[in-house]
Structure formats: structure tokens, C-alpha cells
Amino acid sequence: MFRDIYLDLYYGILISATYISLSCLKKVDKPFAQLCLLILLTAINEFIAGYLYFCRRPNGIVYLIFTPVEYFIYVMIYKIFLNDKKWTRILFISFACLIVLEIVNTIFYQRLSIPTNIMSIESVLLVILSLKLFIKIREEPVYENVLNEGVFWFNSAVLVYYSFDILIWGFHSLVYHLKDPPRIIYNILQLFSGLLYIAYASSILLNFSAIKKALKTG
Amino acid sequence: MNILLQISNNDVAVSLFTGLIVLGLLFGYIMYFLFSYRHKQKDYKLLQSQKEEIDTQKILLEKTLEELKAAQSQLILRERMASLGELTTGIAHEIQNPLNFVNNFSDVNKELVEELQIELNSGNVTEALSISNDIKENEEKINLHGKRADAIVKGMLQHSRTTAGQKELTDINTLADEYLRLSYHGFRTKDKSFNATLLTDFDKSLEKINIVPQEIGRLLLNLFNNAFYTVIEKMKLKEDGYEPTISVSTRKLNNNVQIKIKDNGMGVPQKIAEKIFQPFFTTKPTGQGTGLGLSLSYDIVKVHGGTINLLTEEGVYTEFIIQLPI
Lengths: 218, 326
Fold this sequence. Notes:
The structure holds two protein chains of two kinds. By secondary structure, chain A is mainly α.
């Protein structure tokens, strides 16, 4: 399971982020609690997938289940952040479409392998949502210092990571069938995944400290 | 496989380059977001402070509006009470007549009862029966005039009522006639020498119409009071052969009742004719008019879904034409 430094780094960060998520789950605002849940589920998913890979058994089924679950949690998070009836409708419609596409993809294209097609579509949707949230934050600049806000780091992480995800899965579709595919792209993916969970954990901690501060000042 | 490997090697370089460009673009976007956020935040803070200022002003305005509404209600009440005061003298005169009848007939009955007792003592039953019939007739007359006085007092109470009354079928001719006489007697009580010709031309075919009688009563009283006021003002000019005349007529026009109230007083100058229905506009000297009479009259007509129009010629006549839907 632990084959190289990138993977070790990724798992290390994920374990740390999971620990922070478990510690802060009940002490943060609702969208950040959902983010904690997402990190927790990701950790479970990654360890099951890693274990299956270690046992040389196909692990595509794990991602087949996890991808829609992950997107649903993002839908719930963005529903709260965007706080707009029209966008709530769009979010749920996009989730329904993703489910339909995943069924079609599983039947016709990627039966037991990792559903990279669906992961790419999910990434596109998340990039759109993060851009929309940036626009919303800019339209209503209520935060005194946006750099101290968990929502800013969460959204920046989503935008950067999922933009790269599109490129990575695109590249993956070109090289995955090769006998010896270039490792660098997967190392970059692990590096970015690690950075994503650092950003997520930071946003949770920022929200936690903001709540703590607010409670102290009464 | 070799071709595929070649493609993949090229693609690694292209992909890394593309990745760097994308990373630069994303970093640029986030920097742009932070810069524009700070810029917007300044505008937002300014907007917020302006909004707070507007909200404070709004609260102040709302408070002022409430105070104005309360003052308006007070003024309307005062106007009603003022018109009630003007009405009181007329009412006193109107009540005096039935009271005189009641007193006179009760005096007569007292004497008749004494006569009846004498006749009964002397055993003259036929005469006693005749006297008792007279007493009965007198009692009926006392009852009739008592009811008349009762109706006048009830009308006065209705007039002073502050809550909105209910619509009811009302004989507009009777209402106009009653208020014309009340207003006239009110002015006559103030000035015993005042005499005016009252001309009424009521459409007998008019059926009862659905109105709030105390409201329409107020409207008519305002117009009659104005009419009497203006003819008195004209009398003060002592023009030869001037005979103050107030005329009231009613007509049925399609689905409307038309009431015309005309006086041959001072008339209304053309330049102020448009303003007379405005609240607080008055031509009367300070302390004599609130300037709300015609404004309230206008509101009453509008509430009833009708119209009120003015025809006038300065120094010759004033005529108000009211149309109320049946």
C-alpha cells in the first residue's frame, strides 16, 4: 500500500485531516461539518481501495459508489454556501444527471474500472460551483478579511484541485492502457490531493477558531 | 505499443506545460478575486453605512408618518365634532317642535282626565267614552312626536360616531331634507334675522339607495353649511334685491342618483376652484374653518364609488353635483 513518498505523504495528510475532522465534527458550522464527513468518508474509501489494490483485487467498485456520494456531499455544502433557490434546484438536477450518467457509464463504458469519465464530469461541475461561489462572495463582501474565512480556502481548494483533476483524468485516459504508464502524473495527483486535504482541514480549523472566538467574545 | 509510448512521452511534456499554465491561470484568478473582493468590500462598507443611514431615516419617517396619521385622525374627529356643534343648534330647534307637541298634548290630556273623572262620577258613560277617545288620540300624537325626537337624537349620535357605519337602504330625499333643515335652523339660531329661501325638488320616484347614512349626512351637512355660510357672506355686502336662496334637487340618472346643491352666494374664484377639495384648504378666516370639510366630503363620495363636481361663477352661484351609484 505504501509504495512511494507521494503516496505516503497523501495518506499521512489524509489521516491528519481525518483526525481534525473527527475532533471538529460537532464544533463547526453545518457546511464544515459536512466537509468533515466528506473527509471521513474519503479516508474510509481510500483505505478500502488501497487494501483492495494491495490484495491485487479490482477496486473500481469502491470509486463507483464513492463518486456520487462525494458529489452529493458537495451539493449539500454548496447548497448552504450559495443559499439560492435557483442554484439549489440546479445542484439537485446536476446530482440526478450525474447518477444517470454513472449508470450509463457503468453499463456501456467503464464496467468495473475506476469511473474516470464520471469523475471528470464531477470535476467540471465542481469547478463551475466554485466559480459561482467566488462570484457570490465577491458580490456580497461581508467578510472583514476573506483570507481568514474557511469558505475561501475550501472554495479555492475545490477550484484548483478539480481543475487539475480534469487534466489528470484526461491524461489518464491516454496512458492507463500502457504497459508502463508515466508515474509523474499520478504523483502530481497525489500531491494535489494532499494539498486539497490540507486546505480542507485548514478551512475546518479556521471555522472552528472563528466559532470559538465568537463564543469567547459572547 | 511503440507509437503509443511515443505519444505518451510527448503528452507528458505537453500535459505538464498545460498544467503549469492552468496553475498560473488559477492562481491569477484567485489573486484577481482577492483584489476585487477588497475593492468591492470598500464599496460594500460605504453602501452598508448608507443603508444604515437610510434605515434610520426610514424609521424616523415612519414615526413621523404615524404621528401625522394620529394628527389627521384627531383633525377628522375635530371636524366631526365641529360639524356636530354646528348641528346642535339646528337639532335643538328640531327637537323643540316635538317637545312642544308632547308638552301641549300632555297638558290637554291632564285636563281631559279631570273631565273624565267628573263625567264618570256623574255616571255619564257616553261622555266619558268620548273623552277617553280624545285622550287616546292625544296619546298617539304624544307617541308620534316622541318618536320624532328620538329619531333626531339617534341621527345626532350617528353623526358623531367615530367608527365607519354600515351601508343601509336610505331614502336620500328624506336625508337631504332633514340635513337641509338642521343646517338652516343652526344658522338661524346664531342669527335670528337670517332668512333664506329653501327650494327643494326631490325626485319622488327615487327608491331607497344603499349608503352609509351618517356619512352621506355629514357630506350633505358640510355642503349645506358652506352654502348658508356663503349666502350670509353675500348678504353682508348688502346688494339691492339680493335674496339668499339654497336649492336642493335629486334625480335618478341611469344607475346613479344625482344630488344638486346650489346657492346664490359668493361663488368660488376660478383660481382656487381646483384646490377646494384639498385637505386644509379654506377661504374662511382663521379659526372658523378647519379646511377639512370638503376634503372629507370628497373622501365620503369616493368611498361610496361616486363623483362630486363643482360648477361655479364668482359672485353669482356655487353648485355641487354629487352622483352616487344605486
